[in-house]
Design goal:
The protein has 223 residues and is of the alpha/beta class. It has a single domain (7-214), classed as Rossmann fold. It has helices spanning 18-30, 54-57, 81-88, 102-105, 136-150, 169-186; strands spanning 7-12, 36-41, 62-66, 93-98, 120-126, 156-159, 190-196, 210-214. An eight-stranded parallel β-sheet has the order 3-2-4-1-5-6-7-8, with helices on both faces.
Length: 223
């Protein structure tokens, strides 16, 4: 994670586990880096929102920011000074949790001046069990629409193939094969493999990408 650029955009289709990954990523990053913030720019999914975990993330040293205007009663994005601060401060590490489709990605357009090639990363979270991203064509279409809307380029892939608590090693490896094909098509690396903690030691050791244990933070135990 220290090798990633300090501005990190996390994108992914609805149901990919994008926000779960982003929150876990922020917690892991805060263990090895200072001034870590996660900005909730997801105006598409009203259910699993990183901004709702403000109090939980505070002890880890993660600041939660939002484009949501407090007291407005609206989820319409606003250019918040809270979000702009870490983008402008080069000592900060900021994670942008972005909406899961082209409409959500448009919120990035207002911050485009900060997305200088070589100074940001945009990671696409891929769950091979989602209908829209279960094959190469679907993933490439999703990435193309996001890149067009955000006017930024995907720099890495995240294999986050899962069936929640029913995930198996076989499911993860299925997603890894899909990510390998997408990686070849786009010439971008597989950066991370998100897996529930119980599977970490069961995965092959030679997989491309850093294996990141995922704690179920956004979903309650009964979900």
């Amino acid at each position: 994670m220290l090798k990633d650029n300090r501005i990190r955009m996390i994108i992914g289709h609805y149901g990919s586990g994008k926000t779960e990954f982003a929150v876990n990523y922020a917690i892991n990053l805060a263990q090895v880096a200072d001034h870590v913030a996660i900005a909730d720019l997801d105006v598409v999914n009203p259910y699993f929102r990183s901004r709702e975990k403000h109090e939980m993330l505070k002890p880890y040293g993660v600041t939660v920011l939002s484009s949501y205007v407090k007291g407005s009663g609206s989820d319409l994005p606003a250019v918040s000074a809270d979000v702009l601060g870490p983008l402008q401060d080069k000592s900060s590490n900021i994670i942008l949790d972005v909406g899961g489709d082209s409409m959500g990605a448009r919120t990035l357009g207002r911050y485009q001046e900060y997305f200088v090639p070589g100074e940001y990363d945009m990671f696409c979270v891929i769950n091979a069990n989602r209908p829209e991203t279960q094959d190469v064509a679907g993933v490439l279409h999703h990435i193309d629409t996001i890149e067009r809307a955000s006017r930024a380029k995907v720099t890495g892939l995240i294999n986050n193939t899962h069936l929640l608590r029913h995930t198996t090693v076989e499911e993860v490896l299925k997603g890894q094969e899909l990510c390998k094909e997408v990686s070849k098509a786009l010439n971008v690396p597989i950066k991370y493999i998100g897996v529930i903690e119980s599977l970490m030691e069961k995965l092959p050791k030679d997989l491309e990408g850093t294996i990141m244990p995922i704690k179920m933070i956004m979903r309650e135990d009964w979900m």
